[in-house]
Structures are given as C-alpha cells and as structure tokens.
C-alpha cells in the first residue's frame, strides 16, 4: 500500500524538491509548513492527487495533532526550523521555540500516533572545528556546536535518538547534512556555492572571508535521494542511528570553490579577506552512509556552479537579489 509521509518545512529549499522526488516514488505527501518564505515552491504539485498541504505552525500541538487524526501517517521527515547560524542568532527565542520545543512536540505526537519512521534534518555544523587538521570527522567524533543553531540541533538529535515508543518498530534517524547547494523550487542564495556563483555570474566583485577553511558540500537533489534511501532502508540499519550525508571527496575550502567558479567565469574578481580563525572548519567523512545504506552522490560542486550560472544567465529569476532568496 502507498505510504503517507508528513514533511514539515516542505515549502523550504530542501523540502520543496523532496516533495517532488517522493511523489515520483509513489508516496502520498502531506506538507505542514507555516510558509515563512511563501509557498510558491509548492504550486507545481498543488493539484497532484497524492499531495495535501496544511498551513500549520509545528509549535501549535492541537493543530499538529489534528493532522495526525485526519491522516494515517507512516513516516515523518522533519525539516521545519529557523535555519542557519545568522537567522537563529537574530531570533534566538523563536529559534528555541521552533527548533527545540516545536520538534519535541512533533516527536511526542508522532510517537503517540504510532508513526513508524522519523527522519530529522540535522547538520554537520554540530562538529564545530577539527581537532586534528589532517583527519576527517565522522559520526563518532565529539560534537562541539559553536552557534545556537547547532546547539539546538544537537539537543534534539539526542532526544530523538534516545526516544522510545510503545511501538517496538519506531525507527528514528538523524541525518547530519553537509552544506547544501544547487537549485530547488525555493532557491536560496545565502549558501556558499550558490551565493559565490550568483555574485560572480552577475559580474560583481566577491569578498571571501577565510578562504582556507574547509567544509563539506552536497547537492540539494542528493539530499532528497538520501532521505528516500533512508525511508526505504531496512530498519535495523537506520533505527536510532545518525548518518552524515554527503561525499568524502566533496570537502572544499572556499578558495577551492572560487577556483572552480573561475574555470567557468575566468574574468571573476575576488578579494580575499584573511581570517586566522573560523570556529567551523571541518572535513567530514561520509563513509558510514555509503557503506551501511549504499548512498552515492550524483552531482558535484562544479555541477551546482554550472546550474546557478545558467539560472542567472538565462534570467530565470526576475530579481536574483530579492530578499526572499535569503534566510536573513
Ligand atoms: N540548507 C542547508 O545547507 C542545510 C544544511 C544542514 C541542515 N539543514 C536543515 O534542513 C532543514 C531544511 O533546510 P532548508 O535549507 O530547506 O531551510 P528553509 O528555510 O528553506 O526551509 C524551512 C521551512 O520550514 C518552515 N518552517 C519554519 N518554522 C516553522 C514552523 N514553526 N512550523 C512550520 N513550518 C516552519 C519555513 O516556512 C520553511 O518553509 C532544516 O532543518 C535545516 O536546519 C539545511
């Protein structure tokens, strides 16, 4: 029988593409979103027979519960959040209310209603800084969040992974996403690859702070594929488990990203502002999800760069500087 998946934050950057991928894979999709950035990203699926939308804030338990009463939900993919360090720093109380209290509320209601799987979008920012410059961080490395955003992700991950249900089959999984790039129905230009490429494709000079610091990157489409794989995985492999999502050979410094962009935009003007410290400097290993779930990426950073250049050159967006393409 067709499974029903509830996606919170389904109108967002990652969620709006995930909705399409899961509909194509014959799931029934319910999106719960309060539409902070609008809901245009969902218009292409609005009339799909297996799609249903609820404009609900996850911090309102009665409303959330009513969705579970109206629908038999098999799995929850929890993406709704105040996303990113700057957005959480700007609205700390709201971030705590949504990312911590709202998430706990959603988890309790999911367990009470016998949901089988619960997948949480966490982040590799949880790791903070590499202790050894030559090593790769993996799921067993210590967590050292350096922002409220990451602190709240770590807190909820712990609650989720230690959660128990009457239902022995309850299968919670935390996915620590690398920094995302690429195009989805809700475009974001406040993420490194997308932002750098957009600015340079528009012919502007780019200022890069701390060009030597490492981060892992992953295409937004590959996140949908990772979530699909985890939804379909044998429970023993993913239950009460944490996976980094990305690819080990897709760790880059900001300098390396600029060099990739310059291969396509050789005239690009870049000013480097040297920084000696970046609290988030890490190279991450993604071998666990590859070995245990069989996840392989299909796109790399240069593919994302090409995508953004095409979007800008073809003027697909009337105003790429519109604040709606940023989370702050
Ligand atoms: N984009 C990245 O690089 C990245 C990296 C790691 C993890 N993540 C995580 O993935 C998830 C999705 O990120 P995104 O980039 O798609 O963000 P996004 O900001 O584009 O989407 C978040 C969505 O959640 C909704 N939302 C926020 N608060 C809500 C609430 N109280 N009730 C209902 N809906 C609410 C917003 O309206 C928005 O549509 C987040 O949990 C984020 O922390 C993202």
Describe how the helices and strands are arranged.
Elements: E1 4-8, H1 13-24, E2 28-33, E3 51-55, H2 61-70, E4 75-78, H3 85-90, H4 92-112, E5 117-123, H5 148-161, E6 171-177, E7 179-181, H6 192-201, E8 206-209, E9 214-219, H7 220-232, H8 235-238, E10 241-245, E11 251-253, H9 254-264, E12 270-273, H10 287-293, H11 301-313
Parallel strand pairs: 1-2, 1-4, 2-3, 4-5, 5-6, 6-10, 7-9, 8-12
Antiparallel strand pairs: 9-11
Helix pairs in contact: 1-7, 2-4, 4-5, 6-9, 6-11, 9-11
The site of nicotinamide-adenine-dinucleotide (NAD) has 31 residues, from helix 1, strand 2, helix 4, strand 5 and strand 7.
List keywords for this structure.
7-stranded parallel beta sheet, 328 residues, 12 strands, single chain, 3-stranded mixed beta sheet, UDP-galactose 4-epimerase, domain 1
What do you see in this structure?
With 328 residues, the protein is of the alpha/beta class. It folds into 2 domains: 203 residues, 3-Layer(aba) Sandwich (Rossmann fold), CATH 3.40.50; 99 residues, Alpha-Beta Complex (UDP-galactose 4-epimerase, domain 1). It contains 11 helices and 12 strands. The strands form 3 sheets. The chain has a 7-stranded parallel sheet with strand order 3-2-1-4-5-6-10, sandwiched between helices. It has a 3-stranded mixed sheet with strand order 7-9-11. The protein has a two-stranded parallel ribbon with strand order 8-12. Helix 1 packs across helix 7, helix 6 packs across helix 11 and helix 9 packs across helix 11. The N and C termini lie far apart (41 Å). The structure holds nicotinamide-adenine-dinucleotide (NAD). The site of nicotinamide-adenine-dinucleotide has 31 residues, from helix 1, strand 2, helix 4, strand 5 and strand 7.
């Amino acid at each position: 029988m067709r499974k029903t998946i509830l996606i919170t934050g389904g109108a967002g950057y990652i969620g709006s593409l995930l909705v399409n991928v899961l509909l194509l894979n014959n799931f029934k999709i319910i999106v719960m979103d309060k539409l902070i950035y609008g809901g245009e990203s969902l218009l292409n699926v609005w009339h799909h027979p297996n799609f249903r939308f609820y404009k609900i804030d996850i911090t309102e338990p009665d409303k959330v519960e009513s969705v579970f009463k109206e629908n038999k939900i098999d799995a929850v993919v929890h993406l709704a959040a105040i996303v990113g360090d700057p957005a959480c720093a700007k609205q700390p109380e709201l971030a705590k209310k949504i990312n911590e209290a709202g998430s706990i509320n959603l988890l309790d209601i999911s367990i009470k209603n016998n949901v089988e799987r619960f997948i949480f979008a966490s982040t590799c920012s949880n790791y903070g800084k590499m202790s050894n410059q030559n090593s790769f961080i993996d799921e067993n490395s210590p967590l050292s969040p350096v922002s409220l955003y990451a602190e709240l992700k770590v807190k909820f991950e712990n609650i989720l992974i230690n959660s128990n249900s009457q239902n022995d089959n309850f299968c919670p999984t935390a996915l620590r996403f690398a920094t995302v790039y690429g195009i989805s129905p809700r475009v974001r230009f406040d993420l490194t690859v997308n932002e750098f490429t957009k600015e340079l494709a528009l012919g502007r000079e780019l200022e890069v702070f701390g060009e030597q610091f490492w981060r892992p990157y992953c295409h937004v489409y590959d996140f949908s594929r990772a979530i699909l794989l985890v939804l379909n995985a044998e429970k023993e492999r993913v239950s009460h488990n944490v996976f980094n999502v990305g690819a080990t050979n897709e760790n880059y410094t900001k300098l390396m990203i600029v060099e990739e962009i310059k291969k396509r935009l050789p005239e690009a003007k870049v000013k480097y502002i040297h920084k000696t410290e970046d609290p988030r400097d890490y190279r991450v290993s993604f071998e666990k999800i590859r070995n245990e779930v069989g996840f392989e990426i299909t796109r790399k950073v240069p593919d994302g760069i090409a995508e953004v250049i095409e979007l800008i050159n073809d003027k697909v967006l009337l105003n790429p500087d519109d604040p709606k393409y940023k989370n702050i």
